[in-house]
Amino acid sequence: SDAAFFKKCGNIAAELGITWGGSWKTPDTPHFEISEGWTQPEGEEIDMEELNALKQRFDEYVNHTNMIINTMGGELEQYRNIINIMGQEIEELKRK
Fold it and tell me: In this structure, what are the phi and psi dihedrals at residue 32, rounded to the nearest 5 degrees?
C-alpha cells in the first residue's frame, strides 16, 4: 500500500538524517526535507538499485496523484457549470 511504501521511505530517510513529513503533527507522507548542510553519512553505501526502484515507485505515485487531481478538477468544473446553468434557469423561472 502507499502508506507502507512511504513508511519504509520515511524509515530510510530517518536513518540518513533526512526529515520525513510523515512524522509531522499533520502528516505529509510524500514530503521529505534535506537540510542545507546535510551530507551522506560516512560509511553508508546507497543501494542504487533499491534507490532507483523507490524513485520509480514514488514517481508513479506522483503521476497517479496528479491524474486523480486533474480528473477531479474536470469533474469539479462540470459541477460548477451545472450549478451555473441551474442558477440561470432558477432566475428565469423567477422572472416568469
Answer: -130, 145
Cell 502507499 belongs to 2
- pLDDT for 20 equals 92
Whole-number pLDDT of residue 81: 75
**Crossing angle of the two packed helices 48-95 and 2-15, in degrees rounded to 10:** 130
Query: Could you tell me if 3 and 9 are in contact, meaning their C-beta atoms sit under 8 angstroms apart?
Result: no
H or E element that contains 54:
helix 48-95
| Mean pLDDT across the chain | 80
pLDDT tens track for 57-68:
888 887 887 777
Separation between Cα atoms, residue 51 and residue 73, nearest integer Å: 32
Q: Are 3 and 28 in contact (CB under 8 A)?
A: no
What's the CA gap between 58 and 5, in Å, rounded?
9
Amino acid present at 67: M
